[in-house]
Amino acid sequence: MMMLIDCSRCRTPLQLPHGAPSIRCAICGAITHVAPAPPAADPSRGAVQPAPGWGPPPPPAHGRKRAVVCGISYRNSRHELKGCINDAKCMRHLLTTRFNFPDDSIIMLNESNTFVYILAEEQTDPYKIPTKHNIRMAMYWLVQGCQPGDSLVFHYSGHGAQQRNYSGDEVDGFDETLCPMDFETQGMIVDDEINTAIVRPLPHGVKLHALIDACHSGTALDLPFLCRMDRSGQYVWEDHRPRSGVWKGTSGGEAISFSGCDDNQTSADTSALSKITSTGAMTFCFIQAIERGQGTTYGSILNSMRSTIRNTGESAGAGGGAVTSLITMLITGGSLSAGGLRQEPQLTSCETFDVYAKPFSL
Length: 362
What we know:
The protein is an alpha+beta fold. Helix content is about 20%, strand content about 20%. One of its GO terms (molecular function) is cysteine-type endopeptidase activity.
């Protein structure tokens, strides 16, 4: 069992092995001394203890599948988005109906909203509000106790940003970040933390899929390799391993991430795709690829997503009605109209060989 603590000097989140009295930060080198760790988790399969300080126990993960689905609307603020909660609802529906994820193996994080219902019940649990603390603890829960054969999913729809990197482990000099609901007061979640929380702990035989529908999200998990594709469909893998030599891959498991755009691009929520209500462009196109039977390989999904976004950006007539089975469950309401989409979905992985052509499965 691991617990999260902040470095005493640079505040970088660190994972403390059970029983360790101190830990050295790989970023600044400081040693942080801590109190004794809490008792270990129940070693039986699927038994997950509550994350420290996270209130009531999260739902138990049954069998081999579990997911964290996060949609943030930033309602009643100048950062408000229209499609993110729709994205979260659609993703949960896809996971349960197409990929057989049990309902109670999915942690759903979104703001309490009178007009948004999850399984016909208003979301009022304070531990399921997408604050920085709750997202961190949900990521911790996602990988806790995972065993060979497990399939994990992390989906995020909300704002993303960048901030200057001073450790030298970013090719472009910037860290990518996710913006929790309370990011203006509590700060953002940096890609280094996401990598430490849900990528590096993955043991052999465990597979993680991340779907990040946010601005500047190309390398939001800090995975070592990025698939760069041109408009003709030709692709090459870029090496994003840090010059410091620090390994940003897994502990033997598999991690693959679809993101809404490149690190230097922005994403959009839009009604131009569904013709009914606002959705995140990346989430819509991912689900559409699955619904249309274009999800046989990682490469076919990426090609389908990029084609749909490109066609929609060039002509407003593409995409409507493509995911009828999911769109019908959405609440029709106000939309953000986007005149054109200028984002290119990306694929990143902890490995390069055969990932593009590998069969896709959750």
